[in-house]
Amino acid sequence: MEAISHAGTVIGVLADDGVVLAAEKRVTGKLLDLSNTKDGGGYGGSGEKMFLLNSNVIGGVAGITSDANSLVNYARTVAQRHLLQYNDDIPVELLAQRLCDLKQGYTQYGGLRPFGVSILYAGFDPHYRFQLYHSDPSGNYSGWKATCIGANSGTAQSLLKQEYKDDITIEDAIGLVLRVMSKTMDSTTLGSEKLEFAVLTYDEAAKQPKAKIYRPSEIDALLVAQGLAKKDGDTEMK
Known about the structure:
Elements: H1 2-5, E1 10-15, E2 18-24, E3 50-54, E4 57-63, H2 65-86, H3 92-105, E5 117-125, E6 129-135, E7 141-143, E8 146-149, H4 153-163, H5 170-184, E9 195-203, E10 208-213, H6 216-226
Antiparallel strand pairs: 1-2, 1-8, 2-9, 3-4, 4-5, 5-6, 6-7, 9-10
Helix pairs in contact: 2-3, 4-5
């Protein structure tokens, strides 16, 4: 839990027509190689906080990165086995249950330590539509309309309680998430070097969910559109 409380903030907001996730990146630096995250490469993002677990589920993690990588690989395997067996995407809650079963097993024996990771699951299935779940290292999970994990989660939760509305749209949810991130991040300004962003929507034409993890240039464009971009002359606290 200590590792999670010191990890970068991850915020999730559930809307009528989608789910929004945003995360603060802590591993930054001029010498960090981000060549595989440029436009046209991969799914976008640095791969530090946001992961595509399945075509209908995006995960945001806070905690020990190596533990998160292990759980992400396990979740992807579970999702693909379900797809192979049933020829259908795994329901979001079932995926959260499977990961929590594994997490809980690591709390039962003295020779093992729990996974030091909390995860937000943003997903879609035809029966329950859009969903947002949170799981902690003990193996507990719960459904949320809006929630936060990581550093400054208390401040973010209070802001979300004040501003969240049940009939919120995806556009309003994007604005809400970015406003809350701007007030809770340790950095004084928002930018693609410190922020990861993902949105899950439904493609009516293709009749399937559409998961999008934003690339750095797309994040900068989004911040400009929301009026939250870093202005010339702004300086960051060291």
